[in-house]
């Protein structure tokens, strides 16, 4: 049986210990808000702006060159592609102006810039008052970084008629044969070139015509209609080339997202001690 007097005498001692523990935790939490948060913000800016994906904005230094050869029904086409920042420069037999490819890199760069603006909006003189405020900032930064990464890892899906009228066919001089379509896009750390050889379906064909939907890569047998003519993809050729700086950029995105999440995890550690406080 417990001694009531002993239990009562121990209460002040337990309360004092609890108060000391809470005071220590509060001091650590205040240090986290004052110093650690700004250290992480600076580290994020260093990763994104100094060590980073600086090449998302480089336009003068050739970053990638590779040869390709296309075998069409009429002739053979050869060329050299050089990726400079967001643009594919003029190459042999080509006048390159690829808005879809440029859009991928531009969009990724724009999202990185928005993340940097969010980070720089809280300089070292700014005092975070609550953990919720830090989490809100980290969520906003992570959203922009995720969108930037997704633009490089998830190429746009297109229907075959959209691809045929996208302007990609106008990049060749002289023009490509009418039974060939091409597509350029970035997928992860690779620059991809896809060539579709087409077969015109006779107007009176009895073949079951099923227009293909939207896709990044269409398979042989895919059908579509354009200008009252029906086509079928007979062959698909794909060329890929690894772009080292794109791989580095994706790694830096991952590092940055991990830094954001780690800071959020540190903030959440204190939530159990201040359930009554909007940490």
TrEMBL record:
Pfam families: Rogdi_lz. It is found in: Cytoplasmic vesicle, Secretory vesicle, Synaptic vesicle. GO terms for cellular component: synaptic vesicle. Belongs to the rogdi family. PANTHER family: LEUCINE ZIPPER CONTAINING TRANSCRIPTION FACTOR LZF1, PROTEIN ROGDI HOMOLOG. This is Protein rogdi homolog.
């Amino acid at each position: 049986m417990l001694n009531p007097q002993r239990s009562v005498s121990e209460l002040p001692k337990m309360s004092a210990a609890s108060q000391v523990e809470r005071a220590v935790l509060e001091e650590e939490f205040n240090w986290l808000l004052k110093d650690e948060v700004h250290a992480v913000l600076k580290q994020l800016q260093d990763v994104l702006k100094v060590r980073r994906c600086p090449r998302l904005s480089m336009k003068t230094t050739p970053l990638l060159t590779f040869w390709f050869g296309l075998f069409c029904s009429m002739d053979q086409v050869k060329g050299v592609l050089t990726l400079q920042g967001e643009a594919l420069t003029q190459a042999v037999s080509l006048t390159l102006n690829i808005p879809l490819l440029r859009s991928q890199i531009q969009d990724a760069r724009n999202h990185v810039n928005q993340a940097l603006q969010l980070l720089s909006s809280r300089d070292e003189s700014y005092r975070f008052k609550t953990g919720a405020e830090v989490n809100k900032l980290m969520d906003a930064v992570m959203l922009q970084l995720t969108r930037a990464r997704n633009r490089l890892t998830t190429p746009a899906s297109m229907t075959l008629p959209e691809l045929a009228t996208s302007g990609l066919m106008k990049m060749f001089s002289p023009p490509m044969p009418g039974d060939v379509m091409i597509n350029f896009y970035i997928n992860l750390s690779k620059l991809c070139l896809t060539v579709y050889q087409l077969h015109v379906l006779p107007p009176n064909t009895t073949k079951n015509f099923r227009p293909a939907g939207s896709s990044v890569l269409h398979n042989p047998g895919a059908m579509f209609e354009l200008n009252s003519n029906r086509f079928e993809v007979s062959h698909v050729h794909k060329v890929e080339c690894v772009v080292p700086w794109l791989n580095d950029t994706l790694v830096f995105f991952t590092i940055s997202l991990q830094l954001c999440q780690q800071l959020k995890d540190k903030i959440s550690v204190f939530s159990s001690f201040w359930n009554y406080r909007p940490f």
